[in-house]
Specification:
Layout (H helix, E strand, L loop, with lengths): L2 H11 L4 E5 L6 E4 L3 H14 L7 E6 L3 H13 L2 E6 L4 H11 L3 E4 L8 E2 L20 E6 L9 E5 H15 L6 E4 L6 H13 L3 E4 L5 H13 L4 E4 L1 H9 L13 E4 L6 H11 L3 E7 L3 E5 L12 E2 L3 E5 L4 E6 L5 E4 L2 E4 L4 E10 L2 E7 L4 E3 L2 E3 L1 H12 L4 E8 L3 E9 L6 H14 L8 E5 L12 H7 L6
Parallel strand pairs: 1-10, 3-4, 3-5, 4-7, 5-6, 9-10, 9-11, 11-12, 12-13, 25-26
Antiparallel strand pairs: 1-2, 7-8, 8-18, 13-14, 14-15, 16-17, 17-20, 18-19, 20-21, 22-23, 24-25
Helix pairs in contact: 2-3, 5-6, 7-8, 10-11
């Protein structure tokens, strides 16, 4: 193993108490630190019997399970590359991923899928496979970008980028071995494996795995936090909003809960302030990319709601004259997956995000490729959605555009579900709110689609939203 990977598992092996707890049922499944390396090496022996060896790629079907966490850690320890796919993915999607990742073996870590090699932790061999010596650049994970602005890309990371970035994040936020993390992020997704498993374990924190976040989780959220003595967790803005709306408790933060991280999408400042006012705990926004991992995080002691905090050590930021953001990071990915192998990482990663820096704090203003150019006026859909959210929420909606021969683009208010009798009033009130802000922004068209296209953490996939608008091609 490389030095960082060796140190990672050595530290975990010295922990007497739980490092992983599967809390999805009344009967908890717990792995203590001293048990972990041996369990992973036995799992590596099982994989070897199935034809999986160091240097191989496997397609791994993940869910929020102990099996998924252990398979992830086994791959890190034994130099196996995992191409992550979600439970419930169609056979066509799995076959496509196998083709793109050049994998020959499919491993099921969900405990319920058929037609794949399933992990059974109760039937692992007694023999332990010795971890190999690994290059620091050994590919570890292949995840796919969300596709929110175009076609998904295969992102290849080495374990070292995760571990060194996690170490920087933990130092900046004060996460330590005294913490107990709740992981409800989808575990096939970058936030689920990095934010919810690898980064907490890097600090020696214990991780409690619950089912991937849904409405039931939202209704039970504070009960889950309280009953598992959770001190920290990650949520997306959509998850946090749902948990707030469905909270039927006294709206008090359980004793010991001290860090609520919010990421994977923009959170409106008003929503952050509303949570702070209600619960007395600041939601700490962060910014990251699949390719570069964590970029910045808000200050736990002096949070600035609405910003995404200060850059981590090892991260450099550059802004062009339009506010376009470029990033230099020590934690960059190995490259994008291609037919030729892995395309090398550029030294400076140019994003599609528009940003500003003020007093060392970063704010994300939107994406340059999402900006709507209407009659020579730049309109940011994220800002417009934040303005209209109090009017339309909890109904799903989004701001998008369609081409226009005169204006260039027309602004479209997209409402989820069938047309309702009060929708004309919503449009009129929306126009009034926009007019009150001044400027030349307005909504040109209101339309309806059955379901908003959302990513795994509730973020609108904007390219898919544009395509879903009736007449968008015209």
């Amino acid at each position: 193993m490389s030095d960082l990977v060796t140190d990672y598992f050595d530290r975990l092996s010295r922990i007497d108490g739980p490092v992983l707890t599967d809390a999805r049922s009344a009967e908890l499944r717990v792995v203590n630190g001293g048990q972990l390396p041996g369990l992973l090496d036995r799992l590596a022996s099982e994989l070897a019997a199935r034809g999986v060896n160091p240097g191989d790629r496997i397609l791994a079907v993940f869910d929020n399970t102990l099996e998924s966490a252990l398979l992830l850690l086994t791959a890190m320890r034994h130099g196996i590359t995992v191409c992550l796919q979600p439970a419930g993915a169609s056979e066509a999607d799995l076959v496509l991923a196998e083709t793109l990742c050049s994998t020959a073996i499919r491993i099921d870590a969900t405990g319920r899928e058929a037609g794949a090699i399933s992990l059974n932790l109760d039937q692992l061999p007694a023999t332990r496979r010795r971890p190999p010596n690994l290059s620091p650049l050994t590919p570890f994970t292949i995840t796919f970008t969300s596709g929110s602005t175009g076609e998904p890309k295969g992102v290849v990371h080495a374990a070292e980028s995760f571990l060194s970035c996690a170490d920087s994040f933990n130092r900046q936020t004060g996460i330590s071995a005294a913490d107990r993390f709740l992981n409800v992020m989808p575990m096939y997704y970058m936030a689920g494996i990095f934010n919810g498993i690898l980064a907490p374990l890097q600090a020696g924190a214990s991780v409690v795995i619950e089912a991937a976040f849904d409405t039931v989780t939202a209704m039970r959220f504070w009960q889950i936090v309280r009953s598992n003595a959770i001190t920290a967790t990650w949520l997306s803005p959509t998850m946090l909003s749902l948990a707030m709306r469905l909270d039927r408790t006294e709206k008090t933060v359980p004793h010991g809960f001290r860090r609520l991280f919010v990421g994977t999408g923009a959170m409106a400042k008003a929503d952050a302030e509303a949570f702070m006012q209600t619960y007395g705990l600041p939601p700490l926004q962060s910014y990251g990319l699949s390719e570069l991992l964590y970029i910045s995080v808000d200050d736990p002691d002096m949070p600035e709601l609405g910003s995404v905090g200060r850059p981590l050590a090892g991260v450099g930021l550059d802004l062009d004259e339009r506010g376009g953001l470029a990033i230099r990071s020590q934690y960059a990915f190995l490259g994008y997956l291609s037919q030729a192998g892995i395309e090398p990482t550029p030294p400076v990663f140019v994003t599609s995000d528009l940003a500003k820096l003020s007093n060392g704090r970063l704010s994300i203003l939107g994406r340059s490729d999402d900006i709507i150019l209407r009659g020579g006026v730049n309109i940011n859909p994220i800002e417009l959605e934040a303005l209209l959210k109090p009017l339309i929420h909890p109904r799903g909606f989004g701001i998008s555009s369609v081409p226009d021969a005169i204006l260039g683009q027309r602004v479209v208010l997209v409402l989820e579900g069938a047309e309702r009798s009060g929708d004309a009033d919503i449009l009129a009130e929306a126009q009034r709110l926009i007019l009150g802000k001044g400027g030349r922004t307005r909504i040109d068209v209101m339309t309806h689609i059955p379901v908003l296209p959302l990513g795994p953490t509730g973020k609108v996939r904007r390219s898919a939203l544009r395509s879903a608008i009736p007449g968008a091609a015209g």
